[in-house]
């Protein structure tokens, strides 16, 4: 019997029909799906022992206590201890792997260039002052007769639990201003009056929202003494230049406003250079500027810095995690380690009136090799001996015998006097915090605001909009978080501006359009968000360094199609 | 001619059924032996060991899973008996300090989350409910690995032993009225 082609097709048809009644095709579908989950390049979660590590978040001076769930040595999730974490803190374990991270820089060349320029007219600009590394900079600058610059020379701290009525003029009090857990705990005990042009998240949660004209913060602050609730005020919070004087007049100094406390330092450090505000530096006097923006909590517009540099051949070296900040202007941008891969203490928080010392303990080994350590760079420049300054400071704190150590793993408080120096150091390196709640807070020095008033409004007739500051965003944010909050319009992205629909229509701008933000200072590429919550005649601006370089608070501006 | 066509078709059906049910399972799995000839029964009978003596929960509630060499070496630093299996284990692993690369039958795909402590302490399930008589077996069964997906046969389907499959999980959850959502088990 001879098989025909028809027989082959019939056999194949039968085989296909029969195969459908076996596990084979269905298994192949499932197996192929499972196989595709394990293709090379697809990230796979680490496997290993699951345990908890504790640290303190170093993204801002709030320094929230963090419990990290680790698989093996890899942190896989972060959570707050005894309170929440902000969305940026929750995803901070992604930061070492950030695609925008600066990964290499000419460290040797930069060292040689600084050496060539000489140590005269040298300055360090520290954008996260109050840390132990800040003291290293100050000691180094004292040694070479240089300047230690910081955004504020006399920072203050606010005692919110002692306040009954709080007036916030444009401060994002309930949206990242202080330590989230502390502010939330204190919130139920004070009445909050929020004065600002937009109904921000803080305004929505305040007891009273007073809408003010865009750019009208200073004018409103000047009118505060005459307002009906002025006599009830415990403290006024905000960036307007008039606020320190108002706080002094309402008697807040020494009651709810204090000098920002610092943990003790070794006696040998006390000859360190003083903190100098940038405005106090004569123009065109800095020849070599070293900028530590590795964990910056604020940004100074470049034109204000540039004014202080010598006209001929200034040298700027910046220590940065990304290229987005001063790296655009510096001759040398050197990469640094980022939280949570670097060990360092956290600067005092704006809402903590007692000294505290918290170490941000590394959770991961450095992901990028060959990063610069700004403290070592500056110390070597000044010839300071290489020492473990964190340990020296911990020993100085231990020597006082004051305060308690709070260990987050068990929630216990242990008096420092009951601990040996090594045990104290070990606790700090396990993420514990030292606090000295019995220390009497000091009233603040009669300082002045370092906030710059807006440019003269009348000088900008062709700039029809007034800028409103947007929420501050850390320099490095997890890509996952930016995707969530930007796509959901939960927060204005750093490179965006928000316009009222009428203003957008007048400028022929659609939602998501690429545009140029123009001010008296300069211009910057932005993307547009149309938001009816923005008052007409105003533009709410994001917090990217590019925008801050050209657009300060209350600046006149216009947005045009790119 | 029509009958002949039907017969050819049926031959095709039968061939596929035979290949699919008998040949395919043999082809799809690759069999591996465990690195150590281990007897749960010997440990239970002679040493009186219970499951959680070696497969313990840590202080924070996480499950330690297969014990590490430290745990084994605690008793087997030197030979306790005269079996070849024990001698080989000591020579190959304990003395050189080398961790045995155990093949875990129950290892789930990456998209699955399973909490032992929830099932044991809250659900009061016995180990045998999912692991069968593994704890009293005299020899470890061969580890059958799916050639395509790379996972153990035990998490897929019937293998002559209680399967730790999604269907088995769903059936048990359904029976206990604990069938809440995909995210109960899936990441």
**What distance lies between the first and last C-alpha atoms of chain A, to the nearest angstrom?**
80 Å
What would you call the shape of chain A?
globular
Q: Note poorly predicted spans of chain A.
A: none
Helix content of chain A: 25-40%
Distance between the termini of chain B: 57 Å
Number of strands of chain A: 26
What order do the strands of the largest sheet of chain A run in, or round the barrel if closed?
A: 12-5-4-13-14-15
Major sheet characteristics of chain B = 2 strands, antiparallel
Global Rg of chain A: 28 Å
Helix count of chain A? Answer: 17
Q: What coarse outline of chain B follows from CA principal-axis ratios? A: extended
Q: How many whole angstroms does the radius of gyration of chain B measure?
A: 21 Å
Which protein chains are joined by the largest interface, and how many residues does each one contribute? A-B, 31 and 33 residues
Helix content class of chain B: 40-55%
Q: What is the count of DSSP helices of chain B, taking H or I runs of 4+ residues? A: 8
Please state the average pLDDT score of chain B: 87
The main sheet of chain A comes to: 6 strands, parallel
Oligomer: heterodimer
The assigned structural class of chain B equals: mainly alpha
